[in-house]
Protein backbone atom coordinates (compact mmCIF):
# COMPACT_ATOMS: atom_id res chain seq x y z
CA UNK A 1 0.00 0.00 0.00
CA UNK A 2 1.39 3.36 -1.05
CA UNK A 3 0.51 6.45 1.00
CA UNK A 4 1.26 9.89 -0.44
CA UNK A 5 0.46 13.29 1.02
CA UNK A 6 -0.99 15.51 -1.69
CA UNK A 7 -2.04 18.51 0.42
CA UNK A 8 -0.68 20.02 3.62
CA UNK A 9 -2.11 23.50 3.98
CA UNK A 10 -2.91 24.93 7.40
CA UNK A 11 -5.13 22.34 9.08
CA UNK A 12 -6.18 20.73 5.79
CA UNK A 13 -4.73 17.40 4.72
CA UNK A 14 -5.23 15.24 1.64
CA UNK A 15 -3.72 11.77 1.42
CA UNK A 16 -3.70 9.45 -1.59
CA UNK A 17 -3.73 5.74 -0.85
CA UNK A 18 -2.99 3.16 -3.56
CA UNK A 19 -3.33 -0.58 -3.06
CA UNK A 20 -1.76 -2.45 -6.00
CA UNK A 21 -4.00 -4.81 -7.95
CA UNK A 22 -1.69 -7.70 -7.02
CA UNK A 23 -2.30 -7.02 -3.32
CA UNK A 24 -6.04 -6.82 -3.91
CA UNK A 25 -5.93 -10.15 -5.77
CA UNK A 26 -3.90 -11.71 -2.94
CA UNK A 27 -6.45 -10.58 -0.34
CA UNK A 28 -9.26 -11.90 -2.49
CA UNK A 29 -7.66 -15.34 -2.82
CA UNK A 30 -7.19 -15.49 0.96
CA UNK A 31 -10.88 -14.72 1.39
CA UNK A 32 -11.89 -17.35 -1.17
CA UNK A 33 -9.65 -20.04 0.34
CA UNK A 34 -10.99 -19.23 3.79
CA UNK A 35 -14.56 -19.65 2.53
CA UNK A 36 -14.05 -23.06 0.89
CA UNK A 37 -15.04 -25.06 3.95
CA UNK A 38 -17.93 -22.73 4.74
CA UNK A 39 -19.68 -22.47 1.38
CA UNK A 40 -22.40 -25.01 0.57
CA UNK A 41 -23.20 -25.30 -3.14
CA UNK A 42 -25.48 -27.79 -4.79
CA UNK A 43 -23.50 -30.40 -6.74
CA UNK A 44 -20.31 -29.99 -4.72
CA UNK A 45 -19.13 -31.76 -1.61
CA UNK A 46 -18.16 -29.49 1.34
CA UNK A 47 -14.67 -28.10 0.79
CA UNK A 48 -14.51 -29.34 -2.81
CA UNK A 49 -15.85 -26.31 -4.66
CA UNK A 50 -13.22 -25.24 -7.25
CA UNK A 51 -11.50 -21.95 -6.49
CA UNK A 52 -12.30 -20.59 -9.96
CA UNK A 53 -15.98 -21.32 -9.44
CA UNK A 54 -16.00 -19.56 -6.06
CA UNK A 55 -14.22 -16.56 -7.55
CA UNK A 56 -16.71 -16.40 -10.40
CA UNK A 57 -19.67 -16.53 -8.02
CA UNK A 58 -18.44 -14.50 -5.05
CA UNK A 59 -15.41 -12.58 -6.30
CA UNK A 60 -17.10 -9.19 -6.64
CA UNK A 61 -18.95 -9.37 -3.33
CA UNK A 62 -15.79 -10.52 -1.54
CA UNK A 63 -13.78 -7.74 -3.19
CA UNK A 64 -16.40 -5.16 -2.17
CA UNK A 65 -15.97 -6.31 1.42
CA UNK A 66 -12.19 -6.02 1.06
CA UNK A 67 -12.52 -2.48 -0.31
CA UNK A 68 -14.66 -1.44 2.68
CA UNK A 69 -12.20 -3.01 5.12
CA UNK A 70 -9.23 -1.28 3.48
CA UNK A 71 -10.95 2.11 3.59
CA UNK A 72 -11.97 1.67 7.24
CA UNK A 73 -8.64 0.41 8.51
CA UNK A 74 -6.50 2.64 6.31
CA UNK A 75 -8.31 5.79 7.38
CA UNK A 76 -7.63 5.07 11.03
CA UNK A 77 -4.11 3.71 10.59
CA UNK A 78 -2.82 6.35 8.17
CA UNK A 79 -3.84 9.21 10.47
CA UNK A 80 -2.45 7.42 13.53
CA UNK A 81 0.89 6.74 11.80
CA UNK A 82 1.12 10.43 10.90
CA UNK A 83 0.56 11.24 14.59
CA UNK A 84 -2.39 13.41 13.68
CA UNK A 85 -5.89 13.75 15.06
CA UNK A 86 -8.75 14.35 12.65
CA UNK A 87 -11.20 17.05 13.71
CA UNK A 88 -14.06 15.19 12.02
CA UNK A 89 -14.57 11.93 10.18
CA UNK A 90 -12.33 12.10 7.06
CA UNK A 91 -13.97 12.32 3.67
CA UNK A 92 -13.16 9.30 1.48
CA UNK A 93 -13.07 9.98 -2.27
CA UNK A 94 -13.13 7.01 -4.64
CA UNK A 95 -13.57 6.73 -8.38
CA UNK A 96 -17.06 7.32 -9.71
CA UNK A 97 -16.21 5.76 -13.07
CA UNK A 98 -18.21 2.54 -13.44
CA UNK A 99 -15.63 0.82 -15.68
CA UNK A 100 -12.80 1.57 -13.24
CA UNK A 101 -14.89 0.33 -10.33
CA UNK A 102 -15.61 -2.92 -12.17
CA UNK A 103 -11.90 -3.45 -12.86
CA UNK A 104 -11.04 -2.85 -9.20
CA UNK A 105 -13.66 -5.36 -8.07
CA UNK A 106 -12.32 -7.82 -10.63
CA UNK A 107 -8.77 -7.35 -9.29
CA UNK A 108 -7.55 -5.98 -12.61
CA UNK A 109 -6.68 -2.43 -11.48
CA UNK A 110 -5.03 -0.74 -8.52
CA UNK A 111 -7.44 0.45 -5.86
CA UNK A 112 -6.81 4.16 -5.28
CA UNK A 113 -8.69 6.55 -3.03
CA UNK A 114 -8.15 9.88 -1.28
CA UNK A 115 -8.60 10.89 2.33
CA UNK A 116 -9.54 14.53 2.94
CA UNK A 117 -9.64 15.85 6.47
CA UNK A 118 -8.70 18.62 8.85
CA UNK A 119 -6.50 18.03 11.85
CA UNK A 120 -7.04 19.19 15.40
CA UNK A 121 -4.68 22.16 15.84
CA UNK A 122 -1.78 21.74 18.20
CA UNK A 123 -1.46 24.19 21.06
CA UNK A 124 0.28 24.25 24.40
CA UNK A 125 -1.84 24.13 27.53
CA UNK A 126 -1.19 27.10 29.76
CA UNK A 127 -1.00 27.45 33.51
CA UNK A 128 -4.29 28.89 34.84
CA UNK A 129 -3.30 29.40 38.47
CA UNK A 130 -3.01 33.15 37.90
CA UNK A 131 -6.63 33.43 36.71
CA UNK A 132 -8.99 34.97 39.27
CA UNK A 133 -12.72 34.34 38.99
CA UNK A 134 -15.37 36.33 40.83
CA UNK A 135 -18.18 34.12 42.11
CA UNK A 136 -21.47 36.01 42.69
CA UNK A 137 -23.32 34.69 45.73
CA UNK A 138 -26.82 35.60 46.94
CA UNK A 139 -27.64 35.35 50.61
CA UNK A 140 -31.14 33.91 50.89
CA UNK A 141 -33.19 36.10 53.23
CA UNK A 142 -35.76 34.63 55.61
CA UNK A 143 -38.36 36.94 54.05
CA UNK A 144 -37.87 35.29 50.66
CA UNK A 145 -38.40 31.85 52.16
CA UNK A 146 -41.60 33.04 53.83
CA UNK A 147 -42.83 34.52 50.53
CA UNK A 148 -42.21 31.20 48.81
CA UNK A 149 -44.10 29.36 51.56
CA UNK A 150 -47.01 31.77 51.23
CA UNK A 151 -47.21 30.94 47.53
CA UNK A 152 -47.18 27.25 48.39
CA UNK A 153 -49.92 27.86 50.94
CA UNK A 154 -52.02 29.60 48.29
CA UNK A 155 -51.77 26.60 45.98
CA UNK A 156 -52.65 24.24 48.86
CA UNK A 157 -55.57 26.21 50.31
CA UNK A 158 -59.13 25.01 50.11
CA UNK A 159 -62.16 26.78 48.61
CA UNK A 160 -65.71 27.05 49.89
CA UNK A 161 -68.76 27.53 47.68
CA UNK A 162 -70.27 30.96 48.02
CA UNK A 163 -73.29 32.85 46.77
CA UNK A 164 -72.84 36.02 44.82
CA UNK A 165 -70.47 37.32 42.18
CA UNK A 166 -66.99 35.99 41.47
CA UNK A 167 -64.13 38.18 42.70
CA UNK A 168 -60.43 38.26 42.05
CA UNK A 169 -58.91 35.28 43.86
CA UNK A 170 -62.10 33.18 43.73
CA UNK A 171 -62.19 29.82 42.03
CA UNK A 172 -64.83 29.30 39.38
CA UNK A 173 -65.93 25.99 37.90
CA UNK A 174 -66.99 26.49 34.29
CA UNK A 175 -67.62 25.08 30.85
CA UNK A 176 -66.26 26.94 27.86
CA UNK A 177 -66.19 26.60 24.09
CA UNK A 178 -63.68 28.66 22.09
CA UNK A 179 -64.24 29.76 18.50
CA UNK A 180 -62.19 31.57 15.87
CA UNK A 181 -64.16 33.10 13.01
CA UNK A 182 -67.21 31.37 14.44
CA UNK A 183 -65.68 27.88 14.23
CA UNK A 184 -64.61 25.80 17.28
CA UNK A 185 -60.88 25.04 17.42
CA UNK A 186 -58.94 22.11 18.87
CA UNK A 187 -58.16 22.49 22.55
CA UNK A 188 -60.71 25.28 22.98
CA UNK A 189 -63.32 23.25 24.83
CA UNK A 190 -63.60 22.12 28.45
CA UNK A 191 -66.31 21.03 30.86
CA UNK A 192 -66.10 21.42 34.63
CA UNK A 193 -62.77 23.22 34.50
CA UNK A 194 -61.49 24.95 37.63
CA UNK A 195 -59.90 28.39 37.29
CA UNK A 196 -58.61 30.71 40.02
CA UNK A 197 -59.27 34.26 38.89
CA UNK A 198 -56.09 36.29 38.85
CA UNK A 199 -53.85 33.24 38.44
CA UNK A 200 -52.91 34.21 34.89
CA UNK A 201 -53.31 30.62 33.70
CA UNK A 202 -55.59 31.55 30.80
CA UNK A 203 -55.23 33.87 27.84
CA UNK A 204 -54.73 37.53 28.88
CA UNK A 205 -58.11 39.16 29.31
CA UNK A 206 -60.03 35.92 29.83
CA UNK A 207 -60.06 35.78 33.64
CA UNK A 208 -60.85 39.47 34.07
CA UNK A 209 -64.10 39.06 32.11
CA UNK A 210 -65.32 36.38 34.52
CA UNK A 211 -65.26 38.72 37.52
CA UNK A 212 -68.83 39.58 38.55
CA UNK A 213 -70.39 36.39 37.14
CA UNK A 214 -72.51 34.12 39.36
CA UNK A 215 -73.51 30.48 39.38
CA UNK A 216 -75.51 29.53 36.24
CA UNK A 217 -74.51 32.73 34.45
CA UNK A 218 -73.69 32.45 30.76
CA UNK A 219 -71.53 34.86 28.83
CA UNK A 220 -69.63 35.16 25.59
CA UNK A 221 -66.26 36.81 26.08
CA UNK A 222 -63.80 38.01 23.47
CA UNK A 223 -60.01 37.77 23.74
CA UNK A 224 -57.00 37.94 21.43
CA UNK A 225 -54.33 35.27 21.47
CA UNK A 226 -50.80 36.64 21.99
CA UNK A 227 -48.66 37.02 18.89
CA UNK A 228 -46.10 34.59 20.37
CA UNK A 229 -48.75 31.99 21.28
CA UNK A 230 -47.43 28.42 20.93
CA UNK A 231 -50.13 27.26 18.48
CA UNK A 232 -49.33 29.06 15.21
CA UNK A 233 -52.90 28.75 13.86
CA UNK A 234 -54.16 30.74 16.88
CA UNK A 235 -51.32 33.23 17.41
CA UNK A 236 -52.60 36.80 17.14
CA UNK A 237 -56.16 35.66 16.36
CA UNK A 238 -59.28 37.08 17.99
CA UNK A 239 -61.42 34.40 19.63
CA UNK A 240 -64.76 34.17 21.43
CA UNK A 241 -65.52 31.85 24.32
CA UNK A 242 -69.03 30.76 25.29
CA UNK A 243 -68.83 30.40 29.07
CA UNK A 244 -71.19 28.79 31.61
CA UNK A 245 -70.44 29.18 35.34
CA UNK A 246 -71.31 26.18 37.54
CA UNK A 247 -69.81 27.25 40.84
CA UNK A 248 -68.10 30.18 42.53
CA UNK A 249 -65.88 29.35 45.52
CA UNK A 250 -63.99 31.67 47.84
CA UNK A 251 -60.48 30.85 49.11
CA UNK A 252 -60.15 29.89 52.77
CA UNK A 253 -57.38 31.20 54.94
CA UNK A 254 -54.41 28.87 55.17
CA UNK A 255 -52.27 29.21 58.25
CA UNK A 256 -48.51 28.78 57.91
CA UNK A 257 -48.28 26.00 60.48
CA UNK A 258 -47.55 22.32 60.86
CA UNK A 259 -50.98 21.47 59.45
CA UNK A 260 -49.95 23.01 56.13
CA UNK A 261 -46.75 20.96 56.16
CA UNK A 262 -48.69 17.76 56.90
CA UNK A 263 -51.10 18.54 54.07
CA UNK A 264 -48.01 18.59 51.82
CA UNK A 265 -46.75 15.27 53.22
CA UNK A 266 -44.13 16.71 55.60
CA UNK A 267 -43.85 16.34 59.35
CA UNK A 268 -43.45 19.98 60.31
CA UNK A 269 -43.24 23.58 59.19
CA UNK A 270 -39.53 23.59 59.97
CA UNK A 271 -39.04 20.77 57.48
CA UNK A 272 -41.01 22.69 54.85
CA UNK A 273 -38.83 25.76 55.40
CA UNK A 274 -35.70 23.63 55.12
CA UNK A 275 -36.83 22.13 51.81
CA UNK A 276 -37.86 25.51 50.38
CA UNK A 277 -34.54 27.06 51.42
CA UNK A 278 -32.63 24.22 49.74
CA UNK A 279 -34.66 24.71 46.56
CA UNK A 280 -34.09 28.47 46.48
CA UNK A 281 -30.38 28.07 47.20
CA UNK A 282 -30.21 25.43 44.48
CA UNK A 283 -31.76 27.80 41.94
CA UNK A 284 -29.31 30.55 42.85
CA UNK A 285 -26.50 28.01 42.81
CA UNK A 286 -27.29 27.12 39.21
CA UNK A 287 -27.19 30.79 38.21
CA UNK A 288 -23.92 31.25 40.11
CA UNK A 289 -22.50 28.24 38.29
CA UNK A 290 -23.45 29.73 34.91
CA UNK A 291 -21.87 33.08 35.74
CA UNK A 292 -18.66 31.48 37.03
CA UNK A 293 -18.43 29.20 34.01
CA UNK A 294 -18.92 32.16 31.68
CA UNK A 295 -16.13 34.06 33.43
CA UNK A 296 -13.79 31.08 33.24
CA UNK A 297 -14.49 30.54 29.54
CA UNK A 298 -13.95 34.24 28.88
CA UNK A 299 -10.55 34.01 30.60
CA UNK A 300 -9.61 30.95 28.55
CA UNK A 301 -10.78 32.63 25.35
CA UNK A 302 -8.36 35.49 25.96
CA UNK A 303 -5.45 33.06 26.37
CA UNK A 304 -6.05 30.72 23.48
CA UNK A 305 -6.17 32.08 19.96
CA UNK A 306 -5.58 29.57 17.17
CA UNK A 307 -7.11 28.54 13.87
CA UNK A 308 -10.12 26.27 14.20
CA UNK A 309 -10.97 23.44 11.77
CA UNK A 310 -13.17 24.89 9.06
CA UNK A 311 -15.69 22.05 8.80
CA UNK A 312 -16.00 21.67 12.56
CA UNK A 313 -16.65 25.40 12.89
CA UNK A 314 -19.13 25.28 10.02
CA UNK A 315 -21.03 22.44 11.71
CA UNK A 316 -21.16 24.40 14.97
CA UNK A 317 -22.34 27.52 13.12
CA UNK A 318 -25.11 25.55 11.42
CA UNK A 319 -26.31 24.27 14.79
CA UNK A 320 -26.42 27.81 16.18
CA UNK A 321 -27.97 29.31 13.05
CA UNK A 322 -30.72 26.70 12.83
CA UNK A 323 -31.64 27.41 16.45
CA UNK A 324 -31.60 31.17 15.93
CA UNK A 325 -33.75 31.11 12.81
CA UNK A 326 -36.15 28.60 14.37
CA UNK A 327 -36.58 30.87 17.41
CA UNK A 328 -37.22 33.88 15.18
CA UNK A 329 -39.79 31.98 13.14
CA UNK A 330 -41.51 30.61 16.23
CA UNK A 331 -41.82 34.09 17.70
CA UNK A 332 -42.81 35.68 14.40
CA UNK A 333 -39.80 38.00 14.41
CA UNK A 334 -37.12 39.04 11.93
CA UNK A 335 -33.51 40.14 12.23
CA UNK A 336 -34.70 43.72 11.85
CA UNK A 337 -36.83 43.26 14.97
CA UNK A 338 -33.61 42.36 16.78
CA UNK A 339 -32.01 45.57 15.43
CA UNK A 340 -29.58 43.75 13.14
CA UNK A 341 -29.41 42.30 9.64
CA UNK A 342 -29.02 38.70 8.53
CA UNK A 343 -25.52 39.47 7.25
CA UNK A 344 -24.44 41.02 10.57
CA UNK A 345 -26.05 38.19 12.51
CA UNK A 346 -24.24 35.59 10.42
CA UNK A 347 -20.89 37.29 11.06
CA UNK A 348 -21.55 37.43 14.81
CA UNK A 349 -22.63 33.81 15.04
CA UNK A 350 -19.67 32.66 12.94
CA UNK A 351 -17.41 34.27 15.56
CA UNK A 352 -19.41 32.57 18.27
CA UNK A 353 -19.08 29.21 16.50
CA UNK A 354 -15.31 29.62 16.22
CA UNK A 355 -15.08 30.53 19.91
CA UNK A 356 -17.14 27.52 20.93
CA UNK A 357 -15.04 25.15 18.84
CA UNK A 358 -11.79 26.64 20.12
CA UNK A 359 -12.89 26.41 23.75
CA UNK A 360 -14.21 22.91 23.16
CA UNK A 361 -10.77 21.85 21.89
CA UNK A 362 -9.09 23.50 24.88
CA UNK A 363 -11.40 21.80 27.37
CA UNK A 364 -10.92 18.50 25.56
CA UNK A 365 -7.14 18.82 25.84
CA UNK A 366 -7.35 19.81 29.51
CA UNK A 367 -9.61 16.87 30.26
CA UNK A 368 -7.39 14.45 28.37
CA UNK A 369 -4.28 15.62 30.21
CA UNK A 370 -6.08 15.39 33.57
CA UNK A 371 -7.37 11.91 32.80
CA UNK A 372 -11.00 12.98 33.07
CA UNK A 373 -13.52 10.45 31.80
CA UNK A 374 -17.27 9.97 31.78
CA UNK A 375 -18.24 6.84 33.68
CA UNK A 376 -20.86 4.34 32.54
CA UNK A 377 -22.89 5.26 35.61
CA UNK A 378 -22.90 8.94 34.64
CA UNK A 379 -23.86 8.08 31.07
CA UNK A 380 -26.66 5.79 32.25
CA UNK A 381 -27.98 8.56 34.49
CA UNK A 382 -28.05 10.97 31.53
CA UNK A 383 -29.82 8.33 29.44
CA UNK A 384 -32.33 7.82 32.23
CA UNK A 385 -33.14 11.51 32.17
CA UNK A 386 -33.82 11.26 28.44
CA UNK A 387 -36.09 8.26 28.98
CA UNK A 388 -38.13 10.19 31.57
CA UNK A 389 -38.72 12.92 29.01
CA UNK A 390 -40.57 10.48 26.75
CA UNK A 391 -42.93 8.39 28.90
CA UNK A 392 -44.34 5.44 26.99
CA UNK A 393 -41.60 5.66 24.35
CA UNK A 394 -38.74 4.26 26.42
CA UNK A 395 -38.08 1.34 24.07
CA UNK A 396 -37.85 3.57 21.01
CA UNK A 397 -35.53 5.99 22.82
CA UNK A 398 -33.27 3.11 23.90
CA UNK A 399 -33.13 1.81 20.33
CA UNK A 400 -32.26 5.28 19.06
CA UNK A 401 -29.29 5.64 21.39
CA UNK A 402 -28.22 2.05 20.82
CA UNK A 403 -28.06 2.63 17.06
CA UNK A 404 -26.82 6.24 17.04
CA UNK A 405 -23.26 6.69 18.36
CA UNK A 406 -23.37 10.45 17.74
CA UNK A 407 -26.40 10.73 20.04
CA UNK A 408 -24.51 8.92 22.79
CA UNK A 409 -21.59 11.32 22.31
CA UNK A 410 -24.06 14.20 22.62
CA UNK A 411 -25.01 12.86 26.06
CA UNK A 412 -21.38 12.37 27.06
CA UNK A 413 -20.06 15.78 25.91
CA UNK A 414 -21.81 18.06 28.45
CA UNK A 415 -20.96 15.70 31.32
CA UNK A 416 -17.32 15.74 30.27
CA UNK A 417 -17.34 19.52 29.93
CA UNK A 418 -18.76 20.08 33.42
CA UNK A 419 -16.16 17.76 34.94
CA UNK A 420 -13.39 19.66 33.18
CA UNK A 421 -14.85 22.96 34.43
CA UNK A 422 -14.81 21.52 37.98
CA UNK A 423 -11.18 20.52 37.50
CA UNK A 424 -10.20 23.99 36.29
CA UNK A 425 -12.08 25.68 39.14
CA UNK A 426 -9.79 23.89 41.55
CA UNK A 427 -6.76 25.41 39.81
CA UNK A 428 -7.90 29.03 39.46
CA UNK A 429 -8.45 31.54 42.26
CA UNK A 430 -12.10 32.13 43.17
CA UNK A 431 -13.30 35.14 45.15
CA UNK A 432 -16.87 35.17 46.44
CA UNK A 433 -18.84 38.39 46.06
CA UNK A 434 -22.23 38.92 47.68
CA UNK A 435 -24.73 40.28 45.16
CA UNK A 436 -28.44 40.95 45.07
CA UNK A 437 -30.92 38.56 43.51
CA UNK A 438 -31.47 40.96 40.59
CA UNK A 439 -27.74 41.22 39.93
CA UNK A 440 -27.38 37.46 39.86
CA UNK A 441 -30.41 36.91 37.63
CA UNK A 442 -29.42 39.62 35.14
CA UNK A 443 -28.84 38.08 31.71
CA UNK A 444 -25.50 38.39 29.99
CA UNK A 445 -25.53 40.22 26.68
CA UNK A 446 -24.83 37.03 24.76
CA UNK A 447 -24.46 33.35 25.52
CA UNK A 448 -20.88 32.45 24.74
CA UNK A 449 -20.61 28.79 25.63
CA UNK A 450 -18.24 26.13 24.40
CA UNK A 451 -18.66 23.18 22.13
CA UNK A 452 -17.24 19.82 23.14
CA UNK A 453 -18.20 18.06 19.95
CA UNK A 454 -14.67 16.67 19.86
CA UNK A 455 -14.39 16.38 23.61
CA UNK A 456 -15.13 13.60 26.05
CA UNK A 457 -13.80 10.08 26.12
CA UNK A 458 -13.64 9.92 22.34
CA UNK A 459 -11.44 12.99 22.04
TrEMBL record:
<dbReference type="GO" id="GO:0015031">
    <property type="term" value="P:protein transport"/>
</dbReference>
<dbReference type="GO" id="GO:0043022">
    <property type="term" value="F:ribosome binding"/>
</dbReference>
<dbReference type="InterPro" id="IPR008881">
    <property type="entry name" value="Trigger_fac_ribosome-bd_bac"/>
</dbReference>
<dbReference type="InterPro" id="IPR036611">
    <property type="entry name" value="Trigger_fac_ribosome-bd_sf"/>
</dbReference>
<dbReference type="Pfam" id="PF05698">
    <property type="entry name" value="Trigger_C"/>
</dbReference>
<dbReference type="Pfam" id="PF05697">
    <property type="entry name" value="Trigger_N"/>
</dbReference>
<comment type="function">
    <text>Involved in protein export. Acts as a chaperone by maintaining the newly synthesized protein in an open conformation. Functions as a peptidyl-prolyl cis-trans isomerase.</text>
</comment>
<dbReference type="Pfam" id="PF00254">
    <property type="entry name" value="FKBP_C"/>
</dbReference>
<dbReference type="InterPro" id="IPR027304">
    <property type="entry name" value="Trigger_fact/SurA_dom_sf"/>
</dbReference>
<dbReference type="GO" id="GO:0051083">
    <property type="term" value="P:'de novo' cotranslational protein folding"/>
</dbReference>
<protein>
    <recommendedName>
        <fullName>Trigger factor</fullName>
        <ecNumber>5.2.1.8</ecNumber>
    </recommendedName>
</protein>
<keyword id="KW-0697">Rotamase</keyword>
<keyword id="KW-0132">Cell division</keyword>
<keyword id="KW-0413">Isomerase</keyword>
<dbReference type="InterPro" id="IPR046357">
    <property type="entry name" value="PPIase_dom_sf"/>
</dbReference>
<dbReference type="GO" id="GO:0003755">
    <property type="term" value="F:peptidyl-prolyl cis-trans isomerase activity"/>
</dbReference>
<keyword id="KW-0131">Cell cycle</keyword>
<dbReference type="InterPro" id="IPR005215">
    <property type="entry name" value="Trig_fac"/>
</dbReference>
<dbReference type="InterPro" id="IPR037041">
    <property type="entry name" value="Trigger_fac_C_sf"/>
</dbReference>
<dbReference type="InterPro" id="IPR008880">
    <property type="entry name" value="Trigger_fac_C"/>
</dbReference>
<comment type="similarity">
    <text>Belongs to the FKBP-type PPIase family. Tig subfamily.</text>
</comment>
<feature type="region of interest" description="Disordered">
    <location>
        <begin position="435"/>
        <end position="459"/>
    </location>
</feature>
<keyword id="KW-0143">Chaperone</keyword>
<dbReference type="GO" id="GO:0005737">
    <property type="term" value="C:cytoplasm"/>
</dbReference>
<dbReference type="GO" id="GO:0043335">
    <property type="term" value="P:protein unfolding"/>
</dbReference>
<keyword id="KW-0963">Cytoplasm</keyword>
<dbReference type="GO" id="GO:0051301">
    <property type="term" value="P:cell division"/>
</dbReference>
<dbReference type="GO" id="GO:0044183">
    <property type="term" value="F:protein folding chaperone"/>
</dbReference>
<dbReference type="InterPro" id="IPR001179">
    <property type="entry name" value="PPIase_FKBP_dom"/>
</dbReference>
<feature type="compositionally biased region" description="Polar residues">
    <location>
        <begin position="449"/>
        <end position="459"/>
    </location>
</feature>
<feature type="domain" description="PPIase FKBP-type">
    <location>
        <begin position="169"/>
        <end position="251"/>
    </location>
</feature>
Amino acid sequence: MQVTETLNEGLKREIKVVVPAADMESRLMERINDSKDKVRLKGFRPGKVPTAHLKRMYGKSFMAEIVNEIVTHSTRNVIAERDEKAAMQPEVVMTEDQDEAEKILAGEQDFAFELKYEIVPQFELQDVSDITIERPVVEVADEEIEDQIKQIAQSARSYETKDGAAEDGDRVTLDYLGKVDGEPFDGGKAEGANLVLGSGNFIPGFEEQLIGLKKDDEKTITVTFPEEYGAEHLAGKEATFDVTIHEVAAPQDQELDDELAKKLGLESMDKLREIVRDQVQGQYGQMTRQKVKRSLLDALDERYQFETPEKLTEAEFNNIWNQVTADLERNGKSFEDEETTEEEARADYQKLAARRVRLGLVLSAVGEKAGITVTDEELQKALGEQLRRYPGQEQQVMEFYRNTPDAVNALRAPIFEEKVIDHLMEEVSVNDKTVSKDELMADDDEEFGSSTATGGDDA
